Amino acid sequence: MKAVRKAEISRKTNETDIKLSLVLEGAGRADIVTDCGFLAHMLELFARHGRFDLRLDAKGDSRVDFHHTVEDTGIVLGRAFSEALGTRRGIRRYGSFILPMDESCVAAAVDISGRAALVYGVNVPAEKVGDFDTELAREFWAAFSRELKCALHFSQLSGGDSHHLIEACFKGMARALKDAVSVDPDYPDEVPSTKGTVTQ
């Protein structure tokens, strides 16, 4: 019987209180509780398109803005992926996907390398989508990258609708991560690195 990789993470600071559970071999179910509606929408899409089961209860100092809630959710989600993957033994490590979203199109790629990097080549024209500061999408992925210790690349191929561009990033990276975290059936016990580790 195939092992189910999962993690439960809690993180509480003076700014946020976040509880998250993640199942990599999921069905795309999401149960998201947060007062940042746009973030909830993006994470529901992320779970569905990555086929991850994701539960999140995130409270933050939204009377200020959503910065801490969004960034700290990225921290906790990246940490959950890291814990669920363990030694990374057997994973494919790399994933990429080109995601069209109406007039917008974004290429998303990931390398679960043990090194954090973010290249965010997406020009989101609006400062806000609803009450969500669009620059926070980048902060989310930067935090995720640091905690999972992975390289994330986003490249805008077309489009200019701010909602669609951010949505394409979340959907595209979900598909890329789905491939990257999957176990290669031909090499299920192999660490995917000539270094012998991807957790440095």
Q: Quick one: biggest sheet?
A: 4 strands, mixed
Helix and strand composition category = alpha+beta
Q: Segments where pLDDT lies below 50 for 5+ residues?
A: none
CATH architecture call? 2-Layer Sandwich
Q: What Rg, in angstroms, do the CA atoms define?
A: 16 Å
Distance between the terminal alpha carbons, to the nearest Å?
Answer: 30 Å
Total count of helical runs of at least 4 residues: 4
Helix coverage percent of residues? 25-40%
Q: Could you say what the CATH topology is called? A: Ribosomal Protein S5, domain 2
Describe this structure in words.
By secondary structure, this protein is of the alpha+beta class. It has a single domain (6-181), classed as Imidazole glycerol phosphate dehydratase, domain 1 (Ribosomal Protein S5, domain 2, 2-Layer Sandwich), CATH 3.30.230. It has helices at residues 37-50, 67-85, 135-148, 162-181, and strands at 6-12, 16-23, 30-34, 53-60, 94-101, 104-111, 117-121, 128-129, 132-133, 151-158. Helix 1 (37-50) packs parallel to helix 4. The protein is globular. The model has no long low-confidence stretch (mean pLDDT 94).
